[in-house]
Amino acid sequence: MEFLVPSQTSTESFDVVLIGAGIMSATLGTLINQLEPTWSIGLYENLDKAGLESSSPWNNAGTGHSALCELNYTAAKADGSVDPAKAIGINEQYQISRQFFSWAVENKRVEGNGFINPLPHMSFVIGEDHSKYLKTRYEALKPNTLFDELEITNDLDTINEWTPLVAKGRDQSQKVAASRVVSGTDVDFGRLTADLTNSLGAAGASINFGHKVKNLKRDGAGWELTIKDNASGAVKTVKAKFVFVGAGGGALPLLQKSGIDEIKGFGGFPVSGQFLRCTDETIINQHHAKVYGQASVGAPPMSVPHLDTRFVDGKRSLMFGPYAGFSMNFLKSTGQMDLPLSLRPHNIIPMLAVAKDNMSLTTYLIKEVLKSRAKKDLSLAEYFPEADGSKWELITAGQRVQVIKKDAKKGGVLQFGTEVITSSDGSISGLLGASPGASTATPIMIGLLSRCFPKEFAGGWETKLKDIIPSYGQKLNDNPALYAEVKAATDKTLGLN
């Protein structure tokens, strides 16, 4: 048992406390600071810097996910048809994020536009059936404004022009197909998070790294948090009118400690992963695309294989994966007791129901954990036929905690997405889940603000938001002229022309 050292300092109070220094907290804090500059903000992060957990590019944070190439957002129905609605919705969300990025650059909330780079987004499939599916997907998406740049081919020479590493050395008789959108992007969310957090501190927020939130409880209309300084071991009390729990995998335990009714029935299923990262510059420089394939049977959506160019701290890199695994940690920086300690009487039934109904996922994870390095290299060769495994290093990606929630019919369901949990009085809110995550942080946080601060939202915030998000309240997919205007403006500011 850990004994907390009594605080030697006075109690601090804030209008808003942000738990965790990831992209969600950084985005929410920036929005609140712009909408209500007189509100005091305190941010507490367990680690020593911002953006080191789920927002880190090495931990598989979304790198500009906009459903241009991610096939899991357009799964084929039983009759073979494809519904474009989910992909359109995710792309609409990313357009909001892009406008926020552009505003942040223009208003010097970030240090230049180096966190975002133009990068084609591609889908690549193997086999007759998958090629037919890709064509059906193309036909469903192409008529839409947000996907009007989509191209498709089953010609290997054309694929070689698009992405040489995928085509070279491939069996000419193999049936393949690819689609792409040239105007995709790659986002270094670690860098963006750090910049937004720094600017938040410069604007007057209290930024506290190396501080772990140990507990939180009701304090009248607000909240009282118990926070430990990791360096000194001292513990202090912090009071807040509103709390946002943006702690990634650590959000579930903190929301459970809050005691709010809305968290009852929720559990978490942690999934870890690994990537192969290329160390040979001559290979890295031959690939300039984000290439997504089809997920294996039983694989979770975030395990869709992809061969990615990424820009991390301004340096170009190349990664392939992920190889899914299982760990009971909810974060890379926490321990194996996270999962068992998250069990509660109200979430045991949903979790058992999910275990029963997802045996294929369990089987998949076991196979992935047991997969040898040689088999990992064979998976790489499906997308890069001439790959030399000796030029790739195996790195551990971040932890993802998939949402488990109660269900009236099944008892519990496993949800591959994000879930915002908000108390009935709007005084506390937190985010659970993973994909598409970072890429849609801005619309998710705007939605949170509308739920938690309806009076302020109706009393002027919406007007202010239109200064940040010019298309706010409108669907760009339904308005080609507005989309063209917004895209041209954001491309110019972000250096994507």
From TrEMBL:
Transmembrane segments: none
Catalytic activity as recorded in UniProt: (S)-malate + a quinone = a quinol + oxaloacetate
Keywords assigned by UniProt, alphabetized: FAD, Flavoprotein, Oxidoreductase, Tricarboxylic acid cycle
InterPro entries in the cross-refs: FAD/NAD-bd_sf, MQO
EC class of the enzyme, as a word: oxidoreductase
Enzyme Commission number(s) from the entry: 1.1.5.4
GO MF terms, alphabetically ordered: (S)-2-hydroxyglutarate dehydrogenase activity; L-malate dehydrogenase (quinone) activity
One GO term (biological process): tricarboxylic acid cycle
Cofactor(s) required, per the database record: FAD
Pathway the protein contributes to: Carbohydrate metabolism; tricarboxylic acid cycle; oxaloacetate from (S)-malate (quinone route): step 1/1
Family recorded in the similarity comment: Belongs to the MQO family.
Protein name: Probable malate:quinone oxidoreductase
